[in-house]
Amino acid sequence: MKPALLAAVVLAGTLGTLPSHAGPTQTAVLETYAAQAKVAEPGFAGFSVERGKALFLGRFTTGKPDTPSCTTCHTTDPRKEGQTRAGKVIGPMALSAKPDRYGVLAEAEKWFARNCDSVLGRACTPREKGDFISFMVSQ
Amino acid sequence: MLRVTCTIAALACGLPGLAVAQPSAAPQALMSKECGACHMAFPANQLPARSWAAVMAGLADHFGENAALDPASRAAIEGYLTANAATGRAKALRGLAENQTPLRITELPSWQREHRGKVTPQKLAITKAKSQSDCVACHAGAARGQFDDD
Q: Smallest Cβ distance to A118: which of B37, B65, B129?
């Protein structure tokens, strides 16, 4: 099988079965993270909505003290608006409630770079980014 | 005609006293988008250039959060902020020593003098201000640099 076709089959297997509101742009971002995850983790077997949900709701002690969880600013309901520590409204994280999310890789990378460091105290892996987006596009 | 145009341009360029800062719209729009995603985009003329340079050099720990930007955006925004910063005898700089580099507008002597006794816990509660940095809670035009409405 040609590599490109193999990749397409693997992606269909890793992305196609998830309940999702994702359009073409979100799917493209997820495919990029899937390709990165396959390189980073030889045993990568696809993204998980449940792991993404656990990451979103989890509380951590390894990041900056003011932001122990994603939910510190985003609330525990992805369909609701959140609020920055400075008081600005943050649009909902669920794709169904804010359809322009997760469609631009550079924007996704910017916010993962910032917020994984603020909350986890480290960079997120490609699998964690894909899990997170998979959860949010399912919401 | 060409000669006339060049002469006028040379005159304009040669008279810095008459030059009006005309920052291109793009860096200002970028600043509003990026800074304004998390907090009011504070007007550039409320801090000296050295303060903006320090703020933009420390985005990885920006008052307790990582606010890192890609290098090109970071440079463009720093360029806008420093080019439009408070200079000389600006009101914001009154009482500030040249070797001081405040990272917060609220650290400026002029801010503290102006707000002494006004920004009380009761006032913050009434206005629902998140903190004393929440300028718009009292100054509706703060994001446009208008602070004379109190």
A: B65
Q: Which of A122, A96, A66 is nearest to B38 (CA)?
A: A66
- What does the block give as tokens for A14? 């890793």
**pLDDT per residue as tens, chain A (139 positions):** 444 444 444 454 555 556 689 999 999 999 999 999 999 999 999 999 999 999 999 999 999 999 999 999 999 999 999 999 998 999 999 999 999 999 999 999 999 999 999 999 999 999 999 999 999 999 9
Residue B38 is nearest to which of A66, A84, A106, comparing CB atoms?
Answer: A84
CATH number of this structure's domain A3-138: 1.10.760.10
∠ CA B91-B23-B101, nearest 5°, is 40
Return the domain boundaries, chain A: 3-138
Question: Are residues B65 and A65, on separate chains, in Cβ contact within 8 Å?
Answer: no
A67: contact with B, CB 8 A cutoff: yes
Contact B68 A65 (CB under 8 A): no
